[in-house]
Amino acid sequence: MVANWKMHKTVREALAYAEAFLPRAREIEGVELALAPPFTALEPLSRALLGSPVAWAAQNVHPEPAGAFTGEVSAPMLAELGCRFAIVGHSERRQIFGESSAFVARKVTALLGAGLRPILCVGEQLAEREAGRAREVVERQLEESLPEIPEGRAEELVVAYEPVWAIGTGRTATPSLAGEAHSWIRERLRARFGGAADRIRIQYGGSVKPENAAELLADPEIDGALVGGASLDPASFATIASAAAEAAPRGGG
Ligand code: PGA
């Protein structure tokens, strides 16, 4: 369960959040939790979370390890901060900043090379869904955003299915619609990685909130969530994360 804060929270606000969230997080069992703050808050937040059950994640990364790339941050820089995950291919990066799937694929390679786990976002736009092209779009994004993955590393990937029409709109995918898209993704991952695909987490993202989290996470195809707006409040994100603790993991158990 990952909180994507996007461009929200100063360092002071991030630390206040950690203080409020940590006692709640300690009550949640069997759920992997991470907070993805803006870069400025990453290092101070990492100190606040050190030794706690909550990991920290970056919202972006540049594919090159270093160089003349004004405004960018590299995977080795994130690794040094103990970052466990980084979000790549978010629709806001694809749409607002014009990032292509080929560029996203290079980021995935860089992250794995630095020992971080990529959270790779894919998802169709409303017009694509209405034209009956959702599956084709999601499969193509997935295919083109995934680089060659070193042997034995595929299960470090996390894929987030985020239909663009559900992001920040209050319009959530129904569990059956999301579950269906997750099964397309799982099928593609199996074609690519064989049995390891069953160990790749597939998160749903798009207007997840305390009121709908349990219903979404109850779907056996939905392994977790990438939460934007509703993760900005620590009590709200804790409620959502608790819903994951209640949901049975895929494959029973
Ligand atoms: P939202 O954002 O929960 O505010 O819809 C999700 C995301 O963009 O990751």
Number of strands: 8
The gyration radius over C-alpha positions equals 17 Å
Q: Biggest sheet: strands side by side, in what order?
A: 1-2-3-4-5-6-7-8
Return the average pLDDT rounded to an integer: 96
Structural class: alpha/beta
Task: Please state the overall shape, judged from the principal axes of the Cα atoms.
Answer: globular
The termini sit apart by 19 Å
* Largest beta-sheet details: 8 strands, parallel, barrel
Descriptive account of the structure:
This protein has ten helices and eight strands. Helix 1 packs parallel to helix 10 and helix 7 (134-145) packs across helix 8 (175-193). The two termini are 19 Å apart. By secondary structure, it is an alpha/beta fold. Helix 1 (11-25) links the parallel strand 1 (2-4) and strand 2 (33-36). The structure holds 2-phosphoglycolic acid (PGA). 2-phosphoglycolic acid (PGA) binds at residues 4, 162, 167-168, 205-208, 226-230. 2-phosphoglycolic acid binds at residues 4, 162, 167-168, 205-208, 226-230.
Name a few traits of the molecule.
single chain, 253 residues, alpha/beta, 8-stranded parallel beta barrel, 10 helices, 42% helix, globular, binds 2-phosphoglycolic acid
Write the layout of secondary structure elements.
Layout: E1 2-4, H1 11-25, E2 33-36, H2 39-49, E3 54-58, H3 75-80, E4 85-88, H4 91-96, H5 101-114, E5 117-122, H6 126-130, H7 134-145, E6 158-161, H8 175-193, E7 201-205, H9 213-217, E8 224-227, H10 234-246
Parallel strand pairs: 1-2, 1-8, 2-3, 3-4, 4-5, 5-6, 6-7, 7-8
Helix pairs in contact: 1-2, 1-10, 5-7, 7-8
2-phosphoglycolic acid binds next to strand 8.
